[in-house]
DNA sequence: ACCTGAACACCGTTCAAGT
DNA sequence: ACCTGAACACCGTTCAAGT
């Protein structure tokens, strides 16, 4: 079981979601395709369990984090750690927290984030929404980040900067009268750092939360 | 071409992403499978174009919106309208803004959102990040909302409330000492409204943005 | 308890051929 | 310019059968 998940994650990491087929996985495990069905009932369950497997590592990172006096500072540190852990695994976004019956680590991680909101002056509903919002920013940013490369970048035929630059170029050719905003931000877009984009979105959410909690 | 996209969207709306196959689409169009390849080069391009097709309708909704004096109020109204438009189309989240060469409507929508940030006292980078964050909240929430039902709900065998309630029940059985946060929010989770969750995440982001802009 | 080969019912995509 | 049937190389899943 353990090795099924380990190899599944390895396959996902090496070549992306579409590379994880039962046939490829069986070959790596040195067995037949049907064997995998003894461990999981479907591909969906395999992905759910693979997700929880890597979330387990992220949870360990989270538990190694030093405590902060300010709960919002601690939420930030946790969100950044979580983002780092799943950054290179965009496939994870679609499965994280989808089935907490199978994803015990995801549930524990959710709990750990949520405990910080218990230290803030909020209603239960506000706490629920706050944690959902933070998880949303982390997962959403990681998914965005991972879906960007449209094949040629994955092949290594075109670098990420060149890819962004090509887009930026077509944007620059748009009529500035019709697209003033696109022209305003095209230089920011060109060669932009996804991590900064995530940090910025997180900061907006945390600032809103701090305001809400009156902290 | 127009009818290819219309039927593709109809198929997606009726039965979800997995129901859109070239064979099913060809049958609806009363032709052969290979015909579709005269209009699009691949299934990916079909999804890109189908996405832009429905974003066109959302864009029209946006343009019908009354102007607000406050740019942040206008951003809120736009985000809510966009959310409503894509709420029932979670498949869209994975494709929105993925290829603006093909998605002219998505680009125009991005521009329209961005123009509101031009009215705020921000740097170009802050504007770029702000629009990314807002789009992220909208798309992320819509995707979450759509991925939830795990088959039995889609089949109509189990209602959404019952599905949530079942989860809530397993959460209630967790040890309160280990899961204080889960216990704190389980009643909020049970029967919760996804739209409220989205509105709440949006409000946190907009509050942060207002603070940043000093408005 | 754990694994297997072979089959089943699908996919997206291609291609030579038609009008 | 537009469409087609038939094939190709895959999929996830099932099942009777093995140890």
From TrEMBL, chains A, B:
Top-rank lineage group of the source organism: Bacteria
SUPFAM superfamilies registered for this protein in UniProt: Homeodomain-like, Tetracyclin repressor-like, C-terminal domain
Keyword Hydrolase: no
Residues annotated to bind DNA: 21-40
Residues of the HTH tetR-type domain: 1-58
InterPro entries named in the record: Homeodomain-like_sf (IPR009057), HTH-type_TetR-like_transc_reg (IPR050109), HTH_TetR (IPR001647), Repressor_TetR_C (IPR004111), Tet_transcr_reg_TetR-rel_C_sf (IPR036271)
Keywords: DNA-binding, Transcription, Transcription regulation
Signal peptide coordinates: none
The protein's name: TetR family transcriptional regulator
């Amino acid at each position: 079981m353990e090795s099924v998940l380990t190899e599944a994650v390895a396959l996902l990491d090496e070549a992306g979601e579409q590379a994880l087929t039962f046939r490829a996985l069986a070959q790596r495990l040195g067995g037949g395709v049907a064997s995998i069905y003894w461990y999981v009932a479907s591909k969906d369950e395999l992905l759910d369990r693979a997700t929880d497997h890597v979330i387990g590592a992220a949870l360990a990172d989270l538990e190694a984090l030093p405590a902060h006096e300010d709960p919002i500072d601690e939420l930030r540190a946790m969100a950044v750690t979580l983002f780092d852990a799943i950054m290179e695994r965009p496939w994870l976004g679609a499965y994280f927290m989808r089935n907490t019956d199978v994803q015990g680590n995801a549930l524990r991680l959710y709990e750990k984030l949520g405990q910080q909101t218990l230290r803030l002056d909020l209603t239960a509903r506000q706490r629920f929404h706050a944690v959902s919002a933070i998880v949303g920013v982390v997962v959403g940013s990681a998914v965005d980040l991972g879906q960007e490369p449209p094949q040629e970048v994955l092949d290594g035929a075109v670098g990420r900067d060149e890819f962004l630059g090509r887009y930026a170029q077509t944007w620059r050719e748009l009529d500035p009268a019709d697209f003033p905003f696109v022209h305003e931000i095209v230089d920011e877009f060109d060669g932009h750092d996804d991590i900064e984009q995530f940090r910025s979105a997180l900061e907006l959410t945390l600032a809103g939360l701090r305001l809400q909690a009156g902290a």
